């Protein structure tokens, strides 16, 4: 029924205002920010806050500045930090959340109380979590004093103030590293396709991998993004922040997993038992595969939280701590403290692209399954 | 209908009553500093009783939150009648260059302030030959704090220059003091950097640095960066986890010997820690800056396009008056910017600072917004952080120079 029935008119009338509002206040503002990121608004302090500032179009110059500019080493370190943070944060939440859910799934006594306790941190805001954990991670107090409870010497780990970092690499080698990693992935894809007998896929993946490897071998090493080597790595000061973030969000993954575990029909478990599966086999072959959609949703939600994280870092380590800084913090400082609006908008756009990397494939797969069901 | 009319008239009456005399004061003075501001407001109201004062305080240390709110209001076209800003480039580099402030030179002339404020100070709050704000108070940034009893115990004296400081540092280390100098989070490291720079380059060199006559890449400046690196080797390793108060605590408990902090530390020592000045804690100008007063000041300006210009001008007059400054500063723990203040109202430390204020060469502080615009100050934190990690003087100097070029005060 495609005609303009009364129902249809009603639905259009009801939806139009929100469509217009979203178009203006979400997509319109995104477009505006992207536009600002390609201008020089704020690069001249005299024009930044003037009543009628003169704004010129500079194309991708701000992005070039961020990725190769001498002064923007902070931003590059933040990008690296964000990636380490995201991976460790998601892994921590998933492992801890799954572990708690598995324990609770065995119906321990007082399950309701435990569930509330584990879920409780999520009801706090990151600012509160950050403040509490900053106290606990002080150099001479909190966590570092824990060993004295059992008679040991207090730990001296500088949780939020460490300046050490591990897994360092030269930013100049980034194109080389990326190309190599992508090539290796493509080779794996090719090998798998070959085993599955998909010839076209094998050839395409293998050729792409070959081109990338050749580029990495012959062009990559000569590419100089920066005049001098610049080393970035995983700052140990981030560990404290990751612990606080995992503490806050693992209750949420626990709730997701618990719902998933409870949703698995008893018949399936019984059938597995009848087939002679032991506990390990049942989890490995029956329960975990059924939980994989939940893992995916949890990764999406945790992933975009961690990319956009701002308040936790601000509360725990302050705005000027280079070792723990993240892009969202830098965006705030650049735009609203240094008045460099275009550079701030460029950082914001990079963040948007990073989040889109996570969200868009997820949305696409959601739409596809919905169409499949329809 | 009748009711609506009634409400409308009532609203009209109240709003016109408000318009009869209204003044909005926008500041970040809350908590410890609120009593000082309230005393000032009280003084203003005793002179202009019909004016309705709206105290629009946005709390948050050093005005980080207030500045963001201020930007929103200025860009939105509803500037507060008068707002607090650190005197000097922080105001000039952000709001004066954007053509949003009014020239206060006539006010300074009619009130005779050119004679009572030091000439060096007037220079710092002027640009393009015009004066832009009224300083209410003055703080000194280059003060070295120590614990006199502990220094006696260790058998060392207060170093007068940075090389002497490094020797003292080595002596203290040999006596088992792990960190002779204590620093805290990033801005206190910048604060220390400032004192090392001025102590090494001299007041003139410092002024040249921020007027563009001396480049950051000059060998003398690079050398000063190297000195700063050596000074940092004397400091504690857990710096970024400490607030300035926590850093000061280590002087009192004798873990560290020296700390360089602004003179708000005197208020902390006497009021919060109940220590007697001179015996409980001691102070000296930071090494190499004996005859230099590195100042920072809070000031109020006059934005363009405000609703209550007369009331605001009267407010500025109160701020700059001898009575106003001597009401505010003893409570705030700072000294008056005027040189004719009534010293009997001030604490022991403030008296010594006020004497230095009259007799020293005055220069502005970078980290507290007097000599460099926000675009420089804010980004400079990252340069210091990188330097702390790498100790590469040449790279830090080159980065600082690029920042200076970008901020428009050097070429």
Q: Secondary structure elements and their pairing?
A:
The complex is a heterodimer of chains A (374) and B (411).
Chain A: H1 6-37, H2 45-48, H3 61-68, H4 73-105, H5 111-119, H6 126-136, E1 165-170, H7 174-196, H8 199-218, E2 231-235, H9 238-263, H10 266-274, H11 279-307, H12 311-317, H13 327-336, H14 341-373
Antiparallel strand pairs in A: 1-2
Helix pairs in contact in A: 1-14, 4-9, 4-11, 5-9, 6-9, 6-12, 7-8, 9-11, 11-14, 13-14
Chain B: H1 2-19, E1 22-27, H2 34-47, E2 52-57, H3 64-75, E3 82-86, H4 89-96, H5 105-111, H6 113-116, H7 119-124, E4 126-127, E5 130-131, E6 133-135, E7 137-140, E8 143-146, H8 148-154, H9 162-174, H10 186-211, H11 219-232, H12 244-252, E9 258-261, H13 264-272, E10 282-285, E11 292-296, E12 298-301, H14 309-320, H15 322-332, E13 335-336, H16 348-359, E14 361-364, H17 374-390, H18 393-407
Parallel strand pairs in B: 1-2, 1-3, 11-14
Antiparallel strand pairs in B: 3-12, 4-5, 6-12, 7-11, 7-13, 8-9, 8-10
Family (chain B): Belongs to the bacterial solute-binding protein 1 family.
Organism (chain B): Deinococcus metalli
Signal peptide (chain B): 1-19
């Amino acid at each position: 029924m495609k005609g303009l029935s009364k129902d249809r008119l009603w639905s259009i009338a009801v939806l139009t205002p929100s469509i217009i509002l979203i178009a203006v206040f979400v997509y319109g503002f995104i477009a505006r920010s992207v536009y600002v990121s390609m201008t020089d608004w704020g690069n001249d302090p005299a024009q930044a806050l003037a009543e009628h500032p003169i704004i010129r179009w500079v194309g991708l110059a701000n992005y070039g500045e961020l990725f190769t500019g001498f002064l923007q080493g902070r931003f590059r370190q933040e990008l690296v930090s964000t990636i380490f943070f995201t991976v460790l944060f998601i892994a921590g939440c998933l492992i801890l959340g799954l572990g708690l859910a598995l324990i609770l799934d065995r119906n321990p006594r007082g399950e309701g109380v435990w569930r509330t306790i584990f879920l409780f941190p999520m009801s706090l805001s990151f600012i509160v979590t950050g403040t509490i954990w900053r106290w606990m991670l002080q150099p001479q107090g909190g966590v570092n004093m824990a060993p004295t409870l059992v008679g040991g010497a207090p730990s001296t780990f500088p949780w939020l103030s460490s300046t050490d970092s591990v897994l360092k690499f030269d930013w100049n080698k980034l194109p080389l590293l990326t190309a190599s990693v992508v090539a290796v992935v493509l080779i794996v894809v090719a090998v798998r396709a070959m085993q599955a007998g998909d010839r076209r896929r094998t050839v395409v993946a293998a050729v792409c991998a070959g081109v990338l490897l050749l580029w990495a071998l012959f062009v990559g090493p000569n590419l100089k993004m920066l005049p001098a080597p610049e080393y970035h790595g995983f700052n140990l000061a981030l560990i404290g922040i990751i612990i606080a973030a995992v503490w806050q969000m693992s209750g949420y993954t626990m709730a997701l997993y618990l719902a998933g575990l409870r949703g698995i029909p008893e018949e399936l478990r019984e059938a597995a038992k009848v087939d002679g599966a032991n506990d390990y086999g049942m989890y490995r072959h029956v329960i975990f595969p059924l939980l994989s959609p939940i893992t995916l949703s949890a990764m999406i939600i945790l992933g975009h939280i961690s990319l956009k994280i701002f308040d936790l870092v601000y509360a725990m380590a302050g705005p000027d701590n280079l070792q723990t800084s993240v892009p969202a913090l830098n965006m705030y400082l650049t735009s609203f403290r240094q008045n460099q609006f275009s550079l701030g908008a460029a950082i914001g756009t990079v963040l948007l692209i990073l989040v889109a990397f996570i969200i868009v494939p997820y949305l696409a797969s959601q739409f596809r399954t919905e169409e499949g069901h329809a | 209908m009748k009711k609506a009319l009634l409400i409308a008239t009532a609203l009209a009456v109240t709003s016109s009553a408000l318009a009869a005399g209204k003044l909005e004061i926008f500041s970040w003075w809350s908590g410890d500093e609120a009593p000082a501001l309230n005393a000032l407001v009280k003084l203003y109201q005793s002179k202009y009783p019909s004016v309705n004062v709206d105290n629009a305080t946005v709390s948050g240390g050093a005005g980080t939150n207030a500045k963001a709110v201020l930007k929103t209001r200025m860009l939105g076209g509803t500037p507060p009648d008068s707002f607090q800003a650190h005197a000097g480039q922080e105001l000039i580099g952000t709001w004066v260059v954007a053509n949003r402030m009014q020239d206060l030179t006539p006010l300074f002339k009619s009130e005779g302030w050119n004679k009572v404020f030091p000439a060096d100070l007037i220079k710092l709050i002027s640009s393009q030959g015009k004066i832009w704000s009224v300083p209410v108070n003055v703080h000194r940034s280059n003060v070295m704090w120590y614990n006199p009893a502990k220094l006696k115990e260790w058998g060392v004296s207060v170093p007068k220059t940075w090389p002497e400081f490094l020797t003292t540092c080595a002596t203290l280390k040999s006596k088992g003091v792990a960190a002779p100098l204590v620093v805290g989070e990033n801005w206190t490291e910048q604060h220390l950097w400032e004192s090392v720079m001025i102590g090494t380059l001299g007041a003139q060199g410092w002024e040249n640095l921020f007027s563009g006559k001396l480049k950051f890449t000059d060998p003398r400046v690079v050398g000063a960066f190297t000195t700063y690196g050596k000074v940092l080797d004397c400091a504690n390793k857990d710096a970024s986890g400490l607030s300035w108060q926590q850093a000061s605590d280590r002087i009192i408990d004798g873990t560290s010997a020296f700390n360089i902090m602004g003179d708000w530390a005197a208020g902390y020592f006497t009021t919060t820690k109940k220590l007697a000045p001179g015996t409980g804690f001691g102070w000296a100008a930071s090494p190499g800056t004996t005859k230099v007063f590195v100042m920072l000041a809070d000031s109020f300006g006059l934005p363009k396009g405000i609703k209550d210009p007369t009331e605001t001008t009267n407010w500025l007059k109160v701020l700059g008056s001898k009575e106003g400054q001597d009401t505010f500063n003893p409570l705030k723990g700072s000294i008056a910017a005027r040189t004719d203040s009534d010293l009997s109202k001030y604490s022991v430390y403030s008296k010594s600072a006020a004497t230095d204020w009259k007799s020293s060469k005055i220069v502005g502080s970078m980290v507290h917004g007097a000599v460099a615009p926000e675009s420089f100050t804010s980004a400079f934190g990252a340069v210091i952080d990188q330097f702390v990690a790498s100790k590469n003087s040449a790279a830090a100097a080159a980065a600082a120079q690029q920042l200076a070029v970008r901020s428009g005060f050097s070429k």
